[in-house]
Amino acid sequence: GGLLDQLGFEDGKFTRKRTIVHAVNDVSFEIQKGETLSVVGESGCGKSTLARTVVGLYEPTGGQIFYRGERVDNKSGSQRKKFRTAAQMIFQDPYASLNPRMKVAQILEEPVRFHFPEFSDAEVKQRVADVMEQVGINPVWGARYPHEFSGGQRQRISIARALVLKPEFIVADEPISALDVSIQAQVLNLMMDLQRDHNLTYLFISHDLSVVQHISNRVAVMYLGSLCELADAKELFANPQHPYTKALLSAIPRIGKKGFSHIKLSGDVPTPINLPSGCVFHGRCRLANQRCVNEVPHAITLDSGTICACHAVQEGRSTTMPA
Ligand code: SF4
Ligand code: MG
Can you provide one Gene Ontology molecular function annotated for this UniProt record (predicted)? Predict the structure, then answer.
């Protein structure tokens, strides 16, 4: 419960030119205040589209997004304006996401001036200085341009820009994967500290399962825009159900040692424009049968609380994957 008590997303379809791209098909979930829900999957699975749609950067052509129980995906929604400040995004690439022609202080002041026109100049500058300190960037450096900072510092500035409106919900799309490995942990730890200090809710998009295991309360696994499995993080890593989840987990060496053998997936991820029939994973799943080819598996909730969309799981067939 709490402030951000409901954020749901259902059945999104997106128009890119004239082609319907089934970027986030049959995905529906809620995020609780203060939790970290991670979304994992290979590139092209619809994670970034989902992230951008949730914060309103993409318009869903179908589906609904709720915030505090009210829709925010249509212009008439009374919570929409609130949601535009309450939900902020951190992008993968801190080089591309900061305007190179603006000084850092300007980059951080702009959204505050836009969303809080009643603030005095001193109040705006104070808000920006506070947030720079919170992310470990000396406020006097606000007079510098983004290119004068390292990649890690730039991502701290991006985080500051997300925080400057005092949001309660942050969507972070691969926030550390463009950074040097040596500074990834620092930025991740900063994000965790900020979450604790401000009771932030995170939707964390990642392809890195060892990071996800470290930070998540719950994990959603996506493949080709479809939700495969959604589970408590501990449960997902101890007891994966969906064949795709098992294949992903088997690729983590640390987990592989604990009795999962490495499962090799055959074939490439198909294009999201021509989705496979039935289960979108069937072309790469060694457990696929005729039903999997014909029929879309619907998500069901198992006794453990795990949500899983797989015929084999539903039928009680063994989903132990041949290595
Ligand atoms: Fe594999 Fe069939 Fe389950 Fe899809 S529904 S993951 S093809 S067993
Ligand atoms: Mg992406």
Answer: ATP binding
281 Cβ closer than 6 Å to some ligand 1 atom: yes
Cα dihedral: 109, 113, 119, 124 (round 10): 0
The three-point CA angle 239-241-246 to 5° equals 85
Indicate the pTM of the whole model. Answer: 0.85
221 alpha carbon, distance to own chain's centre: 11
Q: Which two tokens stand for residue 64?
A: 């609904």
Torsion of Cα atoms, 157 then 159 then 160 then 163, to 10°: 170
Q: Give me the residue spans of the domains in the chain.
A: 12-216, 239-315
Whether 246 contacts 263, CB under 8 Å: yes
Atom number of ligand 1 nearest to Cα 288 = 7
Note the ligand closest to the C-alpha atom of 240. 1
Q: Which ligand is nearest to the CA of 226?
A: 1
For 12-216, give the CATH class. alpha beta
So what's the ipTM on this one?
0.95
